[in-house]
Amino acid sequence: MPNAQSGFFEWVLFFIKTQGSLFLRGAGVTLLISLTGTIAGFIIGLAVGYVRARPLQKEDGAGRYWLMKVVRAILGAYIEIFRSTPMIVQAMVIFYGISAVFHVTLPYLLAGFIIVSINTGAYLSEIVRGGIQSVDPGQQEAALAIGMTYGQSMLHVVLPQAIRNILPALGNEFVVNIKDTSVLNVIAVTELFYVSKKAAGTYYKYFEVFFITSCVYFVMTFTVTRILRWLEKKMDGPENYVIHGSQTVPDVELIGKGGEKHA
Amino acid sequence: MPETIIEVRHLSKSFGDHEVLRDVDFSVGKGEVVSIIGSSGSGKSTLLRCMNLLEKPTGGEVLYHRRNIRDAGFDLHMYRAHVGMVFQQFNLFNNMTALENCVVGQMKVLKRSRAESEKIALDYLCKVGMDLYVHAKPRQLSGGQKQRVAIARALAMNPEVLLFDEPTSALDPEMVGEVLAVMKDLAASGLTMLVVTHEMGFARDVCDRVVFMDGGVIVESDTPEVIFTQPKHPRTREFLARVLQSEPQPV
Ligand SMILES: Nc1ncnc2c1ncn2[C@@H]1O[C@H](COP(=O)(O)OP(=O)(O)O)[C@@H](O)[C@H]1O
Ligand SMILES: [Mg+2]
């Protein structure tokens, strides 16, 4: 163990050596909660965004019409409330609220997952709705005009394009969640920030420990950002297309508009 | 008189206070090629869109084989599959290749198998001269190519009638010909077509009947012969004088 005369890097090395696995486990919990929370939040966002983007039609019958109005008001309130309060406060209210009402203490992983999902869902609902509305209405009209139902037109034509358009925002939300799960330390979720605070407190070496912590956060978010960028490119498909039936002349490729020819 | 496929009766449509269609009556018979001409804003697109309920008419009715398309038991989705539409802005599904564009409706609406759908799609893509581009995405195609794929997509549903809403108006002049050529072939093959167009040559040389609309009403409807050489109504004459400053180009 370094002593009082030891320098910054000696302490950093010491923490990496002795607490390395603890940091890694903390980072694992952070990644796990932010990834599952973002995915669940995306599913919530898709459902809520879909409902809120669907035009209300009086012809569906008065019962259905009013039911949809009520459902929408509730969803609107959900979005407003969760976007207008800090996640750290939501964590306290949800965790201690469930504990008070149901007399159970949620396992910390589950608690973290629920809080991040609900919070992310609120943000992504609006992003999904915007994504749906950003798709040219002509796309849906063409789908309806060949006989698709509203649901089919959304599933096969509108949503794939909407999701592609919001992919950057979705990735951004994931990165934000990697960072913001740190607030879950208030309910003792053993994510990266929580384990760091504990280690730092034990030796009273906050700067050294949180220097390591920030490096770990950076590596996580940086890696995730690159992977998402690569995924976006992949989803757009090749810039070129092979001329159909040209297998006999394998070199023939057309270059798409604005595309660069790759070897 | 051929069997009537679609009959429009006393159709009217308002957007708020704005009355866009007023008491429109007309019908399309089997095998007929009818064009609708008229100046911009006269309600041509709205009429077409009311015919497949992309717009809800505010009055009157549309009958398909004598059945009101807004009846409770009427299968609107199958109707739309049988009454295809080609849009001015093509509206190809941007997330799909040319082939997928022509396959998805067959599979999801007509419940054909993938193999069968692809075979039919390829046939029609071939017919419109786009068989080399089956794997291209819309963003990789020119306007004329997109429109030809859009026509193949509509044809792949084996429609009884095809509605065209200014199919060449968004095209660069040099691409108009390739799309008109496809449409001319379709007309010759006996397909029933209703074509909103500003291509007077097409209306005159290819169509059996020309409908002139102005201000949300049908002003007159007759053979191209009569409309282009001896229109009865002064408004028709004015319109034609305006658009025919040069002789219509034969197609
Ligand atoms: N969705 C709409 N809302 C309000 N007005 C509309 C809408 N669609 C069309 N209109 C109006 O209806 C009139 C006829 O439009 P349209 O049918 O597109 O004419 P055309 O196709 O003959 O150019 C125009 O004055 C247009 O502004
Ligand atoms: Mg129009």
Model description:
- The complex is a heterodimer of chains A (263) and B (251).
- Chain A has helices at residues 8-53, 62-83, 87-102, 108-134, 137-145, 150-180, 192-203, 206-235; strands spanning 240-242, 253-255.
- Chain A has 263 residues and is mostly helical.
- Chain A has one domain (8-240): MetI-like fold.
- In chain A, strands 1-2 form a two-stranded antiparallel ribbon.
- In chain A, helix 1 (8-53) packs antiparallel against helix 7 (192-203) and helix 4 (108-134) crosses helix 6.
- The radius of gyration of chain A is 24 Å and the shape is flat.
- Chain B has 251 residues and is α/β, with parallel strands linked by helices.
- Chain B is 37% helix and 25% strand.
- Chain B has 9 helices and 10 strands.
- Chain B has helices spanning 44-51, 76-82, 98-108, 114-127, 143-155, 173-188, 200-206, 224-229, 234-243; strands at residues 4-15, 18-29, 33-37, 59-64, 67-68, 83-86, 161-165, 192-196, 209-214, 217-222.
- A 6-stranded mixed beta sheet of chain B has the order 6-7-8-3-9-10, with helices on both faces. Chain B has a 4-stranded antiparallel beta sheet with strand order 2-1-4-5, covered by helices on one side.
- In chain B, a hairpin with a 2-residue loop joins strand 1 (4-15) and strand 2 (18-29).
- The longest helix of chain B has 16 residues, at 173-188.
- Chain B starts with a strand and ends in an 8-residue tail after the last helix.
- In chain B, 49% of the residues are buried.
- The mean pLDDT of chain B is 94.
- Bound molecules: adenosine-5'-diphosphate (ADP) and magnesium ion.
- Residues 44-45, 165-166 of chain B line the site of magnesium ion.
